[in-house]
């Protein structure tokens, strides 16, 4: 399909407007536009919307329309949502996405109440996420767009948006936790009498004109406020619109917007300083850079410190001392910073530190095995486990950053795979790139080489070099029917000598898609017959917990065991419906929770599933926060840890208009970017803590699946009767 798509839908009765949501996965739909219905005697039977700019080629998009009525303004739950539909654009994209569609900066909506950093406007490009009347970033800081961003000397440091002219605007995808009346504060500066601006939520002006006063300088900051702003709950798109210029010809500078209850600031931002490395430090590729920061909060606690290189998140630490080790850093210049977030969601950024990584020896020397030990052959090599050493040493990748954002922090593009055995694959592969592997061939002889590949187009080719010698010639990748439709390409009769060697997979030509293809693994086998793919490696057992397995002494506050003939083992754990308000984040020291213990394996990807039901099938009784004692993300940084305010939000309803009925399986919140994936830092006993986000919810089964339920739920989200057997 064309990259310029028009979405069309039928008009339901009583509809007065339609909200259009688009994203690159069903779980990341973002508000794009509101299309008003024609309120005439004979209204049209259908409506449509076209993105302002072309979409990314070769990408699958998902979309949904939510219709509104006159009554929606009084009760926001009175809406009707369409099914989620999808389409795939033509052209090349290597499985990636983006372009022309509004999406939250950083991947997740900004939680409100909280702080909106002005420079963190949405992704999507000009006329979609912003309008700027001049070309180029006048401040030359932080992001490569036409929005003008500079460093700020305001409290907390970081960046501000400047050079703001009448007619410009910026969009932010936010999520308001609870409907209510709030105060919106804007942090502004101007060297003369400033202009005016206003804030819109889903296209509706919620502030009226806000005036930027003469603060005495472009970095002399003050706060202007609008009190009594009524906000509805849920995901929304806010727009800061610049209305009129001041005496200087521009409106002023904007550091952030803060949303809180009451008429005075509800939270003082934390302070943070990046203490290591030193500014101007020099390293040699492949470098190991130890980052460290200090952070404090005057009126609360520090929830987390994030470390960034430019706009790329390197890692997160939730407890002091705040550190992160960045490994295998390739040659180049980097701008590092730390961002602290407190328990009230206020943020602060450190001053930036510039470092340089000089090139190493390059060529076929200098790289080291990914695991520390050469791959033993015959055997299987995972494509994503190329050597350590960085750009031009262990690999060459022609684009910056990991487009799949999985497994490793390099420029090689890695994504999850649905091939047999799961795990990861290397994608977005272009001609001229290569990947290097240190191997050890046990016995000299003649072998068959197998390459697991996928591509929705023909024409891609590659070869294998051993110690710089071409051993295969050009191998073609056929059209397999999709980026995750896998086949095996085999080269028979390859003579290999014994001992340690350097293997390099060299990309030769792109397919009709504009990319060579995707690679999952390479296999070396004896003889002339190809062997089938093996089962998943050393299968970790499924973890299945019933409510009755959890001792009564592990239940706290309003959680208790309740007999239920429809539950696994005849028991469920129930959170009494006492009318508690939903919590905006997990609590570090909750009063209402339960815990269970289990054994898990380090380095294994688990998918969490909970079977839940809500009291009275009411959506105010359908969500919990989940934490673990030793959980980490795929990069190894702590995630969802007990004793912090970070947690995985599991929400049974699948949309704002979704219905609930009986038992159902869920592993995340429909509005969140979380995937329900869990890793553990060490093997052995682990603790899971479940605390109520909204009381009135019941749970009878907890599943942590390394295989069986990684790609699909054990059962449906409504009217489920599935009892998962224990292994």
CATH superfamily of the largest domain: Galactose-binding domain-like
As a percent range, the share of strand residues is: over 45%
Q: Summarize the main sheet.
A: 8 strands, antiparallel
Our Rg estimate from Cα atoms comes to 27 Å
Which class of secondary structure composition applies to the elements?
Answer: mainly beta
Pick out the low-confidence regions. 93-98, 361-365, 528-537
Q: How confident is the prediction overall: mean pLDDT?
A: 85
Question: TL;DR?
Answer:
Mean pLDDT is 85; it is low at 93-98, 361-365 and 528-537. The chain has 727 residues and is mostly beta strands.
Description:
The chain is mainly β and 727 residues long. The protein has five domains: 82 residues, Immunoglobulin-like (Sandwich), CATH 2.60.40.10; 151 residues, Sandwich (Jelly Rolls); 87 residues, Sandwich (Immunoglobulin-like); 152 residues, Sandwich (Jelly Rolls); 163 residues, Jelly Rolls. Helices cover 0% and strands 45% of the residues. The protein is built from no helices and 55 strands. Strands 43, 45, 46, 48, 50, 52, 53 and 55 form an eight-stranded antiparallel β-sheet that branches. Strands 8, 10, 13, 15, 16, 17 and 19 form a seven-stranded mixed β-sheet that branches. Strands 30, 32, 35, 37, 38, 39 and 41 form a seven-stranded mixed β-sheet that branches. Strand 27 and strand 28 form a beta hairpin. The radius of gyration is 27 Å and the shape is globular. About 3% of the residues have low confidence.
